[in-house]
DNA sequence: AAATTATATGATAATTTTGTCATATGAGTA
DNA sequence: TACTCATATGACAAAATTATCATATAATTT
């Protein structure tokens, strides 16, 4: 359980990256396609794809000015399957964890009075 | 790939919690024992144990004023094994990812001039 | 070669997560 | 009952992560 493990899980523990993984699980996509499907900004997608690539979650195939991203199937898919199992069992608890859940959220500046 | 997945991975992606998991992998321990072995503060351990318990990673057995924490073996151990495999392959890349790696770190206030 | 399209990247503000401090609770013991 | 030990918890400062903005690069088309 080293620092590497932590990095590995960090790559997973982010909304944008998980969304990308979810999409790529179906089929390879370009940056623009991912943008359209998620509704997220392009630079946001690029930054996070870079992270995923760096960590070995995705591979790229340049094609002209496009870059096709696809998911690594050897380890990422099996891991996703495994935690589906865990989540089935602990859904309720995960949902209301105070430390990492939404309830830990503080008031946003924009909400402050 | 929902918000739940994110929470699940978040539970893993923290130094303190990973250290606790590493220790509990060997045998069940009380809070004080974990404190001693890690050198981390007691409230830090308690807060994070609570998170782990909440997320179904650990179970507690109260015993007098002690509380023995042990790891869930059904899903957590297999997952750990799976990512060992991934890490073996991508060690180098994970180590230098700019987005989630150490190099993303900004200067601390105490270091500012 | 200028314009357009696709993607990447650096800096930084906004947000989230974490650890710490102070303190609370609860069980056992003198 | 007062004291000690084991653990929990709330609030908040500090640290880490994230998204966004501005801009860069690189391929393609006109």
Using the alpha-carbon principal axes, give the shape of chain A.
globular
pLDDT < 50 runs, ≥5 residues of chain A: 103-113
CATH topology-level fold name of chain A: Arc Repressor Mutant, subunit A
Helical segment count of chain A:
5
Largest sheet of chain A: 3 strands, antiparallel
CATH class of chain A: Mainly Alpha
Strand arrangement in the largest pleated sheet of chain A: 1-3-2
Question: Considering the protein shown, what is the CATH homologous superfamily of chain A?
Answer: Winged helix-like DNA-binding domain superfamily/Winged helix DNA-binding domain
Output the structural class of chain A. alpha+beta
Percent in strands of chain A: 5-15%
Tell me the Rg of chain A in angstroms. 16 Å
Helix content of chain A: 55-70%
CATH architecture of chain A: Orthogonal Bundle
Q: What's the domain count of chain A?
A: 1
Largest interface: A-B, 49 and 49 residues
The tally of strands of chain A reads 3
Oligomer: homodimer
Mean pLDDT across the residues of chain A is: 81
First CA to last CA of chain A: what distance? 44 Å
Question: Can you walk through the features of this model?
Answer:
2 copies of one chain form a homodimer. By secondary structure, the first copy, chain A, is α+β, with helices and mostly antiparallel strands. Chain A has a single domain, classed as Winged helix-like DNA-binding domain superfamily/Winged helix DNA-binding domain (Arc Repressor Mutant, subunit A), CATH 1.10.10.10. Helices cover 56% and strands 12% of the residues of chain A. Chain A has 5 helices and 3 strands. Chain A has helices spanning 3-12, 15-26, 31-38, 42-54, 76-95; strands spanning 29-30, 58-63, 66-71. In chain A, strand 2 and strand 3 form a beta hairpin. In chain A, helix 3 crosses helix 4 (42-54). The termini of chain A are far apart. The structure holds a DNA duplex (30 and 30 nucleotides).
């Amino acid at each position: 359980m080293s620092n590497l493990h932590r990095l590995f899980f960090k790559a997973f523990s982010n909304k944008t990256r998980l969304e990308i993984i979810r999409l790529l699980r179906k089929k390879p996509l370009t940056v623009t396609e991912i943008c359209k499907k998620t509704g997220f900004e392009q630079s946001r997608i690029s930054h996070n794809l870079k992270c995923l690539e760096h960590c070995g979650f995705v591979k790229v195939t340049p094609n002209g000015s496009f870059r096709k991203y696809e998911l690594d199937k050897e380890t990422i898919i099996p891991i996703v399957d495994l935690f589906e199992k865990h989540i089935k069992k602990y859904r309720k608890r995960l949902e209301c964890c105070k430390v990492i859940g939404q309830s830990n959220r503080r008031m946003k500046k924009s909400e402050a009075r």
